[in-house]
Every structure is written in C-alpha cells, then in structure tokens.
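[agent] plan:
  1. take the single chain provided in the ticket
  2. run structure prediction with default settings
  3. attach structure tokens to the ticket
  4. add a short note for the reviewer (M.T.)
[agent] executing step 1
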Amino acid sequence: MESSQKSQRESGQFQGLRTTNGERKINSFALVAYIEGPLGRFLDDLRRETVPDCVPRAHVTILPPRPVQGSALAAAEQIHNYLKGVHSFEVHASEVEVFESTSVIYIGLSCGRSELIRMHDALNAGSLNFNEPHQYHPHVTLAQGIRPEQVEPLVELSKRRWAEYNGPRHFEVDSITFVQNTLDNRWLDLAEYKLRAVPVL
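[agent] step 2 finished; step 3 output follows
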C-alpha cells in the first residue's frame, strides 16, 4: 500500500475519523503500523529503486485491505476498544524473501511476528471481518505488481542493498493507523491509535 499523507499524532483516546476534501473514497480499509527512522527511510528508498513509480511509506500491514461491514466509524471504534489494552512491542526485520504465488518481494519478520498475528486474528472480526484470499503473513513489502522477468534481478538487488545497510533492523510498534483507499489508489490516514507503553519495573 502507498500512503498519500503523513500521520498526525493524536492522544491515546480515539478522536474520531479525519476528513479529507476532494478524495473519492471507496469501501476498502486496512490497518498498518508505519516504520519510522533510519530503517523506514532505507525501506522507502529501496522500494523507490525497485518500483520507480511507487510513492511508498514503509509499514507492516496488520489488517490487509478489506471492505467494512457497516460504518467506518464503528470499525474505528472496534479497533480502539481492542488496542487500548495493547502494549507497544519491538519487531525485527530478517531476510529478503518472495511470495511465489504473487511475485511480491518482501522482508520477513522474526521477533514481534507473533504479536502481529495475535492482533490480526483478534481484529479480523465484527465490522472488520473478511475472508482473506491469503493466510496472514506479517512482512514489509519491497516490490509488488512487477513482471515475472523482473522478480529475480529485483530480488538480487534487494538482497544486495539489505546486506549493505548498516542501520537498525528493528522498530517499535507503538502506534497503529486505520487507513482507507480511494479510486486513485491513494491510502488516506483516518485515525491513529497510540499503544500503551510497556511498564518499567
């Protein structure tokens, strides 16, 4: 997914949905955790190198795109009610891999993967319930929508860039963003949820 606007920080309480003028929204929503800092910048640069016409914002998808049953506000409140009890956690990026069935190139995740799966399974219910075409597999997309003959050279490029990168390979999931797609395939931030800080003992 590609994001057209920066997420604005809100308080820990659900503040309702942001409105956007002039965007032709469609019934397609997702839930993501954006990746900030040096790792996020590296991932954005790499994705622009592999898919030049992409306008990326590095993220991990928690709920893949789906229609909402009922109102977007009800779905947003469902997310809030669940996430208000969730603590922030760390996720580690691992190796460059490929989804063979879709030719999507991605970086897999190790530490933090089980937390993402738990969150996905809990939220894939109620207004957000959806019979997804693929089993949920947390990852960071590097290239998608590419031709079959591009896959091998782009995998090699991605592996080389990942090996050259000497910055942090982990990130904190401390906020989650509810997004909606438009007819122009631009993902808009609707609401942000801050996760609870892990208590220091």
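[agent] step 4 note for reviewer: The chain has one domain: 26-194.
[agent] ticket updated
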